[in-house]
Amino acid sequence: MLSPAKVTPGRARQARGDSAREAILLAAERVFARTGFSGATTAAIAEAAGLPKANVHYHFGSKHELYREVLARTLHDWLVPLDGLAPEAEPRAALETYIRAKMAMSAARPDASRVYANELLHGAPVLGELLRTELRAMLRRKAKVIDAWVAAGRMAPVDSTHLFFTIWAATQTYADFDVQMRAVLGRQKLTAADHKRATDHVVALVLRGCGLV
């Protein structure tokens, strides 16, 4: 059984070979997204990265460790933009910046989002403990910021916890279910214009719901 991931990425020899390490992580996102954990091999990941298989084992030790690192890095990168939701921040600007950051990540690294989604669909065997501890604690801290803004009359009353669920669902769907959107829009690939249109829509929808436009 895979062991739980930690939210801080970069445990495995991060100080060395950063360019090779980054290439392996991006290749692993692609391979895990397409084949799942069981179907992925370190040989396929090495080939996708354009590196010898030995490099994968040097940087990560095993497929299990690499999978945990992909998940931890994805969640870490999603949580960093939450730093902008601070009590002293202006609610409209803070929420818009956060949403745009999440949408940008869905456009730039859709495979990372798909690996994360697949992990959750399988019951989060690696991420479960982290979700129940670190992510829960982070969400509670940020929900308190939203609640304080509401109490101060700085935005409309909303359910702060479900506001985050809504933002996560609305932003990550453009990576996880892009095949559905491409089919409906008649696209082989979502374009930069499609992503801009989607981002502007999600931003406007959330801000209106929060009484910030």
CATH level 3 topology of the largest domain: Tetracycline Repressor, domain 2
Q: How large is the radius of gyration?
A: 18 Å
Q: Count every beta strand, where a strand is a DSSP E run of 2 or more residues.
A: 0
First-to-last CA distance? 48 Å
Structural category is mainly alpha
**CATH architecture name of the largest domain:** Orthogonal Bundle
Supply the number of structural domains: 2
Mean pLDDT: 93
Q: How much of the polypeptide forms β-strand, as a percent range?
A: under 5%
Helix fraction by DSSP (H/I, runs of at least 4): over 70%
List the helices and strands and how they pair.
Blueprint: H1 18-39, H2 42-49, H3 53-60, H4 63-79, H5 91-108, H6 110-121, H7 128-151, H8 160-176, H9 178-185, H10 192-209
Describe this entry's structure for a reader:
- The protein is mainly alpha-helical.
- It has 2 domains: 18-71, Arc Repressor Mutant, subunit A; 74-209, Tetracycline Repressor, domain 2 (Orthogonal Bundle).
- It is 71% helix and 0% strand.
Comma- or semicolon-separated keywords:
single chain; globular; mainly alpha; Arc Repressor Mutant, subunit A; Tetracycline Repressor, domain 2; 213 residues
Concise account of the structure shown:
This protein is mainly alpha-helical. The protein has 10 helices and no strands.
